[in-house]
Design a protein that fits this description.
Largest sheet: 6 strands, antiparallel, barrel
CATH superfamily of the largest domain: Efflux pump adaptor protein, beta barrel domain
Strand order of the largest sheet: 1-10-13-12-11-14
CATH topology of the largest domain: Elongation Factor Tu (Ef-tu), domain 3
Radius of gyration: 37 Å
CATH class of the largest domain: Mainly Beta
Length: 295
């Protein structure tokens, strides 16, 4: 009697089972290849890394971040005199150095003011003459000796001369570079004698307060970060400070699924802009306990 066959193809039963098992193994291997997506590998054979938003600390309410100053400005020259703007303006003096504390409106440097002073000197007498002529026309107008058009012309000339004088005075004031707010001179980009224009950075002034930190909070956790929520800020050396949530971003970043939360320190203490810190959301009771423990 011949050997038993299945399906009438003359394939032994054990052979059919072996082929079926081999097909499963091959299929599984193909599936694994599809999941690994070798086409996405880089030229050196390594797979690309997708950066995901994760917390670098222990829990979902802890965030590694950096402090930044809300008032941080790079100063440029705003002196625009037609005759000298193309070639720039020389710096004649510098009054501050990096690290100096400055007050709002404090003088930092002076640009050459010879041309600006001449503009003022030329505009002042023109404004005086126009104002004097307007007063004369006003007196004559009372007796009907001048027409309304002559009166209007005198007003126009006086106002035009006044505007030219104010513009000249503004230009002269811009030869003095002043701090926009109180803080510290973080950078000095120029020296005496340098020729600068409106694209040349002069100083960077940074206020030491207020200090803020930016947190990227997962959408699932952002409900805990209401306006005014207490946040503890801790430095690497263990220094602590208290902060509060002041801004919760209205939109969600589609790439990371996070919302921006801004916190501001109540008292900066020894913290400085740029410091690496750990921000931790705490409850009010914990916040009060920590606040009392902070010297």
């Amino acid at each position: 009697m011949g050997k038993s066959t299945r399906g009438g193809h003359g394939v032994p039963g054990w052979t059919a089972m072996s082929l079926a098992l081999l097909s499963v193994i091959v299929a599984a291997g193909c599936a694994e290849e599809i999941r690994s997506d070798p086409a996405a590998a880089t030229e050196n054979g390594s797979r690309p890394t997708v950066a995901m938003a994760t917390d670098e600390a222990d829990g979902p309410r802890n965030f590694r971040t950096h402090l930044y100053s809300e008032r941080d400005a790079v100063l440029y020259s705003r002196l625009m005199i037609e005759e000298t703007a193309a070639g720039g303006i020389p710096i004649t003096s510098i009054q501050v150095e990096v690290g100096d504390r400055v007050q709002a409106r404090q003088l930092l440097a002076t640009l050459d003011n010879s041309d600006a002073s001449l503009y003022v000197e030329a505009a002042e007498p023109e404004a005086d003459v126009a104002a004097s002529n307007l007063r004369r026309v006003e007196e004559l107008r009372k007796s009907g000796a001048v027409s309304e058009s002559e009166y209007d012309e005198a007003i126009y000339e006086s106002r035009t001369a006044d505007a030219a004088l104010k513009q000249a005075q503004l230009t002269l004031s811009r030869t003095q570079i002043r701090a926009p707010f109180g803080g510290v001179v973080a950078r000095r980009y120029v020296r005496v004698g340098d020729i600068v224009d409106d694209e040349t950075p002069l100083f960077r002034v940074t206020a030491l307060a207020p200090l803020r930190a930016r947190l990227l909070v997962p959408e699932s956790e952002v409900s805990s970060f209401g306006i005014g929520a207490p946040v503890t800020i801790s430095a690497a050396d263990g220094t602590l400070a208290q902060a509060r949530v002041i801004i919760v971003g209205p939109t969600i970043d589609p790439g990371s699924g996070t919302r921006e939360v801004i916190v501001e320190l109540a008292d900066v203490g020894d913290f400085r802009p740029g410091a690496s810190v750990l921000a931790e959301l705490v409850d009010e009771e914990t916040s009060e306990e920590l606040e009392s423990a902070i010297p």
